[in-house]
Specification:
Number of domains: 1
Mean pLDDT: 88
CATH superfamily: Severin
Radius of gyration: 15 Å
Low-confidence stretches: none
CATH class: Alpha Beta
Order of helices and strands: EHEEHEEHEH
Strand order of the largest sheet: 1-3-2-4-5-6
Strand content: 25-35%
Number of helices: 4
Structural class: alpha/beta
Distance between the termini: 29 Å
Length: 151
């Protein structure tokens, strides 16, 4: 993919580092390209216990409303319980969601696609990469199926 020349704002990296090191109470970070189309910025952060505390509420309360027609990337800390040889254990996985609704204009779809790897690389962390254009693409069942290979 050709680099579109969109830069990642330093604040994105700083906010992500705090999030990843668990030095903040943040559940998810939303990144988006600014209106000028030249920079990736932090668009929103949602704290744990907020209106997007589960994957289902993320889809319903954020992607199904505010971002129903807007593209973004969401880094989400998915916490779940897994049974392993009869013992339940807590697992935490970082999800990198590339969200480009089908109603997004073609030019912006291309800009998002060509900038995705730049952002992913700048964040510099191992994450499960998910892409979605419809809420059905990113249902909790689909996410858990994708995670099975990485748990």
């Amino acid at each position: 993919m050709v680099d579109a020349g969109v830069v990642v704002d330093d604040n994105c990296i700083e906010q992500f580092k705090a999030f990843h090191q668990k030095s903040s109470n943040v559940r998810l970070i939303v990144f988006s390209i600014n209106e000028v189309g030249d920079k990736v910025e932090v668009a929103k952060q949602v704290e744990k216990g907020g209106d997007c505390d589960t994957w289902e509420t993320l889809c319903t309360n954020l992607l199904g409303t505010e971002y129903a027609e807007k593209s973004c990337w969401v880094v989400y800390n998915l916490e779940m319980t897994k049974e392993d040889q009869g013992v339940e254990r807590q697992i935490s996985k970082l999800i990198f969601l590339h969200w480009v609704p089908s109603k997004t204009k073609l030019k912006f779809k291309m800009l998002m696609s060509s900038t995705k790897q730049t952002l992913f690389t700048k964040l510099g962390c191992s994450m499960v990469n998910i892409e979605g254009t419809h809420l059905s693409d990113i249902s909790e069942k689909n996410i858990l199926d994708k995670l099975k290979s990485s748990i």
